[in-house]
Design goal:
With about 160 residues, the protein is mostly helical. It has a domain at about 5-115. The protein is about 75% helix and about 0% strand. The protein has helices spanning about 5-10, 15-25, 30-125, 135-140. The longest helix has about 100 residues, at about 30-125. The chain is rod-shaped, with a radius of gyration of 51 Å.
């Protein structure tokens, strides 16, 4: 077939008078060769399309496998994330408990310190009016006072 229009009309079984003239002038051998060439061309197109579809199918399969792999990785990361959250929560809980214990211990140390200072001042001779010197107070850091933390049970020396 010489042009696309003729091929389209022949494909629809509509032959125009012009086409009849062209087709009638061809020999059987030429018609068979053109038919064979057209068949080979069609087969090549079908084969090409099949190869493209096969390649696309393989690409889709590859992408689907990658998606599954990524989903498994996400599941693993979510599990690891949950474990890390649990560890962080446990760590925070333990640290809070230790801080509370340290604060209680600090309060008890401060209370013991006040009792000791009270006992120490009671055993000093009252006539000297001895007050701890600046050197002694500078050698130890100042102790913070806790509101309402008064010594409740100070040891009182026995006086006759």
């Amino acid at each position: 077939m010489k042009n696309d229009m003729t091929a389209a009309v022949v494909a629809r079984n509509l032959v125009t008078p012009k086409d009849r003239r062209l087709l009638s002038k061809r020999s059987d051998e030429l018609a068979v060769k053109e038919s064979l060439a057209l068949s080979v061309q069609c087969a090549g197109s079908v084969s090409n399309m099949a190869q493209r579809l096969f390649a696309r199918t393989r690409q889709v399969e590859s992408l689907a496998a990658e998606v599954m792999s990524l989903k498994q990785e996400i599941r693993g990361l979510k599990h690891e994330n949950k474990q890390l959250h649990k560890l962080a929560h446990n760590y925070a809980t333990n640290m809070k408990r230790k801080i509370d214990q340290m604060q209680e211990s600090d309060g008890q140390i401060l209370l013991d310190h006040r009792r000791f200072v009270g006992l120490f001042q009671q055993h000093l001779p009252s006539s000297s009016g001895a007050v701890p010197t600046a050197e002694a107070s500078n050698s130890q850091p100042p102790t913070p006072s806790l509101p309402g933390a008064l010594p409740s049970c100070e040891a009182q020396p026995d006086r006759p």
